[in-house]
Amino acid sequence: MTAPTSIDRVTATPEAIALLDRLAAKHGPLMLHLSGGCCDGTAPLCLPKGEFRLGGRDLCLGKIGDTPFCMSDDTFQWWRNTQVILDVIQARGGGFSIEAPDGVRFTAKARLFTDDELAGLPDPRPAESI
What CATH architecture is 11-121? Predict the structure, then answer.
């Protein structure tokens, strides 16, 4: 029997990591929040940390570098069985995300966890602990 592999609930493409690094150099510590709403539902908001009020039902799925990735607990129910993959595309978003002036936007993609991966995953922690 092989040892369980550690897997993250959230990860990112090299392009998304590079954009986060560039934005953090300009704006300081950041946070990402996926609303799951009908408009831009897979476009996480990227904001300076502390400028978005997290609610008591928000969860932190993990971090991409130093940037926490959060969503509400009801949105998490839709994403529970998938690994969130942060990516960036050339497009204009309709929100307040700080990457918008660059003509790009973050997007969240998904990969289904295997049964073995799911068995070893802890539940996300409350976002107020970030």
Answer: Sandwich (2.60)
